[in-house]
Amino acid sequence: MARSHAIKDYRNFGIMAHIDAGKTTTTKLVKSMMALPLWIG
Q1: pTM
Q2: Cβ neighbourhood burial of 40 (10 Å; 0-12, 13-18, 19+)
Q3: Which is nearest to 41 in space by CA: 13, 20, 16?
Q4: What does the pLDDT look like over 3-34, one tens digit per residue?
């Protein structure tokens, strides 16, 4: 499968925190601010 974007355009980030610290909530907020579908990631 061909890539739709060049590798230099990709950005990866990670969130590490304690249990019940709001990781999922933060991730959903960031994805909604970026206008990404919630099913991605």
Answers
A1: 0.55
A2: exposed
A3: 13
A4: 787 888 888 888 899 999 999 899 888 888 88
